[in-house]
Amino acid sequence: MATRETETIERAAARAGQYRWVVVGLLFAATVINYIDRQMIGVLKPVLSADLGWSETDFANVIFWFQAAYAIGYLGFGRIVDVIGARAGYAVAFVIWQLAHIAHGGAMSVTQFALARFGLGIGESGNFPAGIKAVTEWFPARERALAIGIFNAGANVGAIVTPLLVPWLVLAYGWRMAFVVTGVAAFVWLIAWWGLYRRPREHPKLSAGELAWIEQDPVDPVVQLPWKRLIRVRETWAYAVGKFCIDPIWWFFLFWLPGYLGDRYGLDLLSFGPPLVAVYLLSDVGSVAGGWMSSRLMKAGRSVNYARKAAMLVSAVAVLPVFFAQSIDNLWLAVLVIGIAAAAHQAFSANLYTLPSDVFPRAAVGSVIGIGGTAGAIGGMLMAKYAGFVLDHLGTYTPLFAVAGSAYFIALIAVHLLSPRLEPVAVAR
Predict the structure, then answer these.
(1) Which residue from 43, 178, 196, 291 could staple onto 350, CB 3.0 to 4.6 Å apart?
(2) Range of the domain at 73
(3) Any idea what the CATH number is for the domain that residue 383 is in?
(4) pLDDT tens digits for 324-340?
(5) CB half-sphere exposure, 131, CA atoms < 13 A
(6) CA-to-CA distance for 273 and 263, rounded, in angstroms?
(7) pTM given for the model
(8) What are the tens digits of pLDDT across the range 141-183?
(9) What value does the mean pLDDT take over residues 318-328?
(10) Are 366 and 129 in contact (CB under 8 A)?
(11) Do the domain assignments include residue 426?
(12) Pick from 77, 71, 54, 362: which is nearest to 221 by CA?
């Protein structure tokens, strides 16, 4: 019976059009740009530290203010995209973060870098609330985890492109022009987004079959929901606590991994590119695989609760070997262990990101994503301060990898305790 139903669903999907995947392509491209802009400071850490005389604590403070802005902006953009929609909300966020990114090229001190990073954090915080809002508008529940996994993989592609592109730009034009060139070039995406994105019912290129496929789920009443109601719901905190636990680990990989490879294995701006590429190629696979895993379980008849949590449990187990990363003397074995952990993070994250759309009405999704993103950024702020303290005073990454290895089990336990069944919630006004 389940097999016959699955075959019917797959035939219906085949008859539907494919424009929704163009939307995913736009979200993927924006996330690539987002992570190029975000990771450049990590790749340039050795250059900036030497040129501007930064300590580990100085670098941590610059990261801290980026994440403080991200915490503020994520909460705000969650509400903004619920009110003005994904199209306009994404465009506003993109303009803010590109202008702030370009401003890095003129920064002369830690304070000026922190101000530029603060602006970048405000703008970049709109990427995922707007992207997930767009996925919620364009995809039925059964495809959302896969769609989110694909566009979330843009983070890994951005992290792959950065260590390949940025050293070349720095050698050719200097680190200041590297910020300017990448920022100006990115505005091509904004033109494509504004020209190609509409809500499904407003889009002239969408077929009737694809619209029916997108709208197969029960329709939620479109009612704006205040935060005072959302914060009383356990499922809001299930998502927020999960983000608080796991987001700092991704920030750690993103901002401190180039420095770790330089300190531990003697790599520099030109030589740490291939190891970073390997790590983020693995994490790219994890992002798509995590969404595929839970979507496949749901197609096989498993509940949303079982599918999401099973995928997250597998991911948490896969992170465990990172506990021992600091003690591995072979560079490429360490890269494999860290790469698997990064892949598992993305698999876990792809499923965690779907929880708001699984259990909340559409009108609340952006706001819940914003609350969770703020919680994750606060966790990242704490991780930045902790990393700066540990590296300046202890000179070892071991405590940081220990935090990374345990965070995902804590996140999954919190999600399960706060939302044992992942059932849809009714949030009254």
Answers:
(1) 291
(2) 9-418
(3) 1.20.1250.20
(4) 999 999 999 999 999 99
(5) 33
(6) 15
(7) 0.78
(8) 788 878 887 887 787 788 889 988 998 999 899 999 999 999 9
(9) 94
(10) yes
(11) no
(12) 362
